[in-house]
């Protein structure tokens, strides 16, 4: 934080960027501090703010500030709630990781911040502070918002957002088809729903995630030093909660060795649907439904515990499992016919249809979509390849159906 006395607040309005930077001992250049990790809650809060900012930019015509010349000085007043994003604007660049794929709105922000000729030179500490060419920071921020809107039109970003959201429709179709094929192959199924997440605080330094600072240099942007006392007071956040690549590696490890020492978990598992999602406050977690052969297994509680034990092993105790079958309203939901998981009769069109509708709702919430991927083609939703049912096994005969993994 930068603290100024009354005299400095008056004098600083007439100083240039270089004079301000020298006075405040600001470092120039792209900086990575190895001892600076993302603190618990900071990433999620900042990510949510960026999404709200871009929604206001794309879907409104509001401007952040009103600026009027008042003699030698400028009068600046807030024109809309967009003004509240001014102080975080440079911090949003901390969310950018080179080489990752972002939703179209976030990609627009990162590209425009790097391309804009003036926004990277703002200190974001005072809206009336002047740049060298006489513009105050409020005017530059207004100009940046206008620049975002022009580039959004030129790049057809709104249409890209519609297409990005349309992926959910394809996922809904895939989920319905997958469950229908499972029901055709298995007369009895045990559908177990769990959430696989991560503990909030990093248990060790290896589980923490370094936070880079963007400053004038390679990134054409800079940030003022962080409040050291605040940094010390907060604990480092568990990396997999904010690094999608780390979470997807854990998912891959979970399914990569079904014939290893933990093969008992997969022996009667006939399928699964797993999707990486983002909670409202930011951290990543997996929504899961595991399907077991109902002719071979019956205990929901046992298999939830078994999944939990394996997930903790895979994540080296950085993860946890939430048992979604423990619901205080379960009995009420069952009476209303709204409880869809647990034991499923594959011959019952009602039960199978209910399960399909439930799974579609569970896995395709628009508000929980992950907006950053390691690569453009990285799969956040995955479904297990259906096993061939052994001939002569219990239950009525089933026609063999193959399904490509999503």
Task: Summarize the model shown.
With 406 residues, the chain is of the alpha+beta class.
How would you describe this structure to a colleague?
This protein is 37% helix and 17% strand. By secondary structure, the chain is an alpha+beta fold. It has two domains: 150 residues, no CATH class; 180 residues. Strands 5, 7, 8, 9, 10 and 12 form a six-stranded antiparallel sheet that branches. It has a two-stranded antiparallel sheet with strand order 1-6. A hairpin with a 2-residue loop joins strand 2 and strand 3. Helix 4 crosses helix 5 and helix 6 packs antiparallel against helix 12.
Annotate the secondary structure layout.
Blueprint: H1 6-11, H2 17-23, E1 31-37, H3 42-59, E2 65-70, E3 73-78, E4 101-102, H4 104-115, H5 137-154, H6 157-185, E5 188-198, E6 210-213, H7 228-233, H8 244-256, H9 263-267, E7 269-278, E8 284-293, H10 300-314, E9 319-323, H11 330-335, E10 342-345, H12 349-363, E11 372-373, E12 381-383
Antiparallel strand pairs: 1-6, 2-3, 4-11, 5-8, 5-9, 5-10, 7-8, 7-12
Helix pairs in contact: 4-5, 6-12
